[in-house]
UniProtKB/TrEMBL annotation:
Residue span(s) of domain Transglycosylase SLT: 67-364
Region (Disordered): 30-59
InterPro entries with a match to the protein in the record: Lysozyme-like_dom_sf (IPR023346), Lytic_transglycosylase_MltB (IPR011757), MltB-like (IPR043426), SLT_2 (IPR031304)
Stored NCBIfam families: MltB (TIGR02282)
Signal peptide coordinates: 1-20
Transmembrane segments: none
Protein name from the UniProt record: Lytic murein transglycosylase B
The entry's keywords: Signal
Length: 371
């Protein structure tokens, strides 16, 4: 499944970076379920004026809400989230299912993406130069985010850069269409996306506006940082104090929200992220200690890795994870890296180790360019 998610991310990154990690950021979504929704007062939701369908969007009536499964979703969600069922019905009756989204989700993996292929997608002169400009434009907000949340401000910038090219590609799908398609016409992940659709209705109720004006990726990820709806509810913040959490049009809110996300993912203020290491030619015991399978917090010490053949000057007592990154398969060329707790925090945003290393390297390049 991870390979499929990574492949879908890369397809999008080459054409529209807004989707770069939208599908694969589902680790991000799972993590959000453990956090209480920020700034959301459910008792006040139903008393707000409900956002109406704007006729200027020309959303034709589709009758989607007449389906039995959609009716069941409305009944359940309106009751559990304290939302108006008639309003939800009206929105869903103007929602259009998009078969192309299902096709994209079902697209078979096209080979294995290694570091040698992945890195050039994100480590480009344009992305670095745009990152430097973006950072300089909002420098005071980045500095404040680092002070408030303890997260490296250049990592925050890099994540927004990897996700959407600093907001240049935020997605063109109507979020309600995308999430409804996956909730009602994609059985394999229906439960997951039904939860995201329910969360999106909470966002609509909180923010107001035309439900069909909200745009995102084909997987329903939204705004500058490509948060899924459940992550928005859990981590999005009103960082500029205007009374609204706006990740679609407000880069300042996005900066604060990414910082808040990584803080809650366990970021350690001022700590290291990752370092490249060498391997011994005579002791290959390190092979048994490299990361495989699901990513977990660091558990081996540098001293243990050194005894297994890793060559590094890192603090022997530090806990890290050993990663092998394939550059080429023939001839076999690898890079070896150790990831600290903050590297793991980045993988809570997107579960790919390739993503995390790309974010780290983009952040370092932006930092070098700014200074």
């Amino acid at each position: 499944m991870r390979l499929r998610l990574l492949t879908l991310s890369l397809i999008s990154a080459m054409t529209m970076t807004a989707c770069a990690s939208n599908v694969s950021s589902q680790s991000n979504l799972e993590a959000s379920k453990a956090s209480e929704p920020a700034r959301l007062q459910q008792s006040e939701q139903i008393s707000k004026p409900l956002p109406k369908v704007d006729p200027t969007t020309k959303a034709e009536r589709t009758g989607l809400a007449e389906r039995a499964d959609v009716q069941a979703f409305i009944t359940k969600t309106s009751r559990e989230k304290n939302l108006d069922a008639k309003w939800m019905t009206d929105v869903l009756n103007h929602t259009k299912l998009q078969p192309k989204i299902v096709e994209a989700m079902n697209r078979p993996a096209e080979g294995t993406m290694n570091w040698g292929k992945y890195r050039p997608i994100f480590m480009t002169d344009k992305r670095i130069n745009d990152g430097i400009k973006f950072y300089n434009q909002y420098e005071s907000d980045f500095i404040r985010a680092e002070e408030v949340y303890g997260v490296d401000r250049f990592v925050i910038a890099a994540i927004i850069g990897v996700e959407t090219g600093y907001g240049q590609n935020r997605g063109s799908w109507k979020v309600v269409d995308a999430l409804s398609t996956l909730a009602f016409d994609y059985p394999r992940r229906a439960a997951f996306f039904s939860g995201e659709l329910a969360a999106f209705f909470q966002i609509l109720n909180e923010n107001g506006g035309d439900p069909f004006s909200y745009k995102g990726s084909y997987a329903g990820a939204m705004g500058y940082p490509q948060f899924m709806p459940s992550s928005y509810l859990a981590y999005a913040v009103d960082f500029d104090g205007d009374g609204k959490r706006d990740l679609w049009n407000n880069p300042v809110d996005a900066i604060g929200s990414v910082g808040n996300y990584l803080m809650k993912a366990g970021w350690v203020r001022g700590a290291k992220i990752a370092e490249q290491v060498s391997v011994s030619t005579s002791n290959n015991a390190y092979q048994a200690l490299k990361q495989t399978g699901r990513l977990t917090p660091p558990k081996e010490t540098v001293a243990q890795l050194k005894n297994a053949g890793i060559i590094t000057n890192a603090d022997p007592s530090a806990k890290v994870t050993l990663f092998e990154f394939e550059v080429t398969s023939s001839p076999k060329v690898d890079e070896w890296w150790i990831g600290y707790r903050n590297f793991y925090a980045i993988t809570r945003y997107n579960s790919s180790k390739l993503y995390a290393l790309a974010v780290f390297q983009v952040s370092e390049a932006i930092k070098k360019g700014v200074r």
